[in-house]
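Table S5 (text form). Sequence records supplied for joint modeling of the two-component complex.
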Amino acid sequence: MLRLKSYEFRRERERGWRELEDLLARADERGVAGLSAAELARLPLLYRSALSSLSVARAISLDRNVVDYLDGLAARAHFAVYGVRQHLRDSVRQFAAARFPRAVRGIRAHLCLAALFLALGMATAAVQVVDDPERFHAFVADEYAQGRDPSATTEELRAALEHDAGGAEAQLAAFSSFLFSHNARIGMLAFALGFAAGVPVFLLTFLNGLVLGAFAALYGGRGLSLQFWGWILPHGVTEILAMLLCAAAGLAIAESLVFPGRHTRLRNLALRGREAGVVVVGAVVMFLIAGCIEGVFRQLVHSTPIRYAVALSTAAAWTLYFTLAGRREA
Amino acid sequence: MIFGGARRDRDLVTPEGVPLRFTLAGAGDRLAAFLIDLTFVSIASVAFGIALMTMLLRRDAFDHLVVAAILLASFLLRSFYFMWFEIRWHGMTPGKRLLGIRVIDSSGGPLTPQAVIARNLLRDVEFFLPISLLVAPQTVWPGAPAWAAELAALWAVALGLLPLFNSDRLRPGDLVGGTLVVLAPRVLLLDDLGAHRVGRAAIPAPAAHAFTDEQLDVYGIYELQTLEAVLRRGGGESNREALSAVAERIQRKIGWDASRKDPPYWFLRDFYAALRARLESRMLLGKRRESKAPARR
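The corresponding C-alpha cell record, covering 627 residues in total, follows.
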C-alpha cells in the first residue's frame, strides 16, 4: 500500500477549505456585510489557516490542483479580509477632517511653485496689455472674450460685470452645473498631465495666468479694477486655489518621477501619486463650491462691498482649513 | 494553467509573510474590460444627452434644476464610474468582473481608495485627451497647428502601448496608483488522482501495477504534473488517443512489458500515484527532483 503524505494532509484540512470557500461565495454575492457576526469572526481564522495550508502544500504536496486551488482560495480570502470595509460616511468624514488638508500640506512647496507660475503668467500678460491694448487678442481667444476686448466701450465692460451672460435667475442652476463640470475636468487633466514630467502643468498654469492678467489689465486700464476683482474673487478664490491644487498635485507626481529620492522611481511614484490623487478629489469638491458661488451668488448680488466680503471670508476659511484641520492625530 | 506563463506570474507577500501567486492579466483582457465599461458609460451618457435634448426641444417641460441635475450626473458618471466600482467591489468594475480580472495593490497590502483614485485619474491623459485631440483638436486647443494632431497621435500610441513595454503590464495609472491588474480565476478543488490507492477506501494495487524504485526514478516533478494535466482531462473517449500515446512512451522509457495490454488510463493513474508517493517522500528528505535526469550516455 502506498503512503501519500499530501493525501493525508488534504483529508485533514479539506473541511476548513470548503467552509472558507462557502463563506467567500456568499460574501461575493451579497458583500461582506451579508455575513453574520459569527461568520465574520471566522473569516480571518479560516484565512490564516488557508495560508498555512498553502505553505505546507507548497512544501510537501506535488498535487498541482491542490496547490493552485489553495493559491486562489488564499488570494480570494485575502481580498475579503483586507478589502476596504469602511462605511462611506466615515470615509467622507475622515477625508474632509484630516486626509485632504494633510495631503495639501504635504505639497505646499509645489503649491507655491504653481502659484508662482500663475503670477508669472498674469504679470506677463498685464505688462504686455498695458503696453499695447491690442495685444489682448494674443492672450484671450475671441470666443472666450465675447466682446469684452479693447474695442468695447467702458460702459459695455461695466455692464458685463453686472449682468452676466447667464441672465435669468432660473438658469442659474444649470449654468453653475456646467461651470463646475468644465472646471473639474480641466483640474483633473492638470493633475494627470503631471505624468508627462510636469512641463504641460507649468504651461497650463501659465496660460491661465495670461488670460487672467490680460483681463485685469484691460479692466484696470478703464478704471474698473475694483469692480473687476469684486466680480472675479468671490468664486475665484476657491476656483483658482482648486486649480492650483490640481497643478501642484501634478507637479508632485512629476517631481517623484524626475527626482525619485530614496525609493526607486516606481515606488516613489506610487507613494506620491496616491497622496496627490487625494488632493485632486478634494479640489473637485472645491470646484463644486466655486461653481455654486459663481453660478448663483455672483448673478444675484451686485454690490461690490458684499462681493469683497465674500471673497475675503472664503480666503480666510480656506487658509484656516488647510493650515489647522487634521493636525491632531498625525 | 499548467504549461508556460511563468513570466506572467507574480508573487506578492501578504502581511502574514506568505507569498501568494498571481497571474498578470493580458493586454487583451484589459482592453476588452475597458471597452465594456466604456460602452456602459457611453450608453448612459447618450441616455442623458437624449433626455437633455428633449427637454430643450419641448419648451413647456423645460426645468433648469433638471438640466443642472443631468449635467452633474453625466459629469459624475464620466469621471467617477471606474473609481466607484473599484472601491465598492474591491478592484473590479462590471467589465473587469465579466472578464475575470481585478486590480490589486502591487505591494501585497489592501487596495486603498487613494490607489484607486490615483490610477483612474490618469485615464484622462491616457485615453480621453489623446482621443479628443485626434478626433477634434480644436475643442482642446483652439487654433491648434496641424502638427499638434500628429503629436497627439504619437502620444496616444506611446501611452496606450506602455503596458506592452514593461514586464508588469503597467499602464500609467497603475504606475501612479501602485497597482497591478491580475487574473481572478476560480480553481475548483478536484478529486485526488492518487486517492484510489491510499486511505481507508484504498483498492490494493494489483501486482501487475507495482513499480520498482528504479522505474520511478526516471521522472521528476515536471513530468508528474504534466501527467496530472493529461489525466485531469478524464478517461473518456475524447482523451483516449493522448492517454495511450503517453502510456506507450512511459512504458518504453521504464522498460515495461507492453505486451500485457494494460488499459492506458488505469495504468497511468497507478503510475501517477506511485510516482507522486516516491517524489513526495524524497522531497521530505530534502531531495527535490525538478525533472527527469539528462539521458545517460
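Note: Chain A touches chain B through 78 residues (CB under 8 Å).
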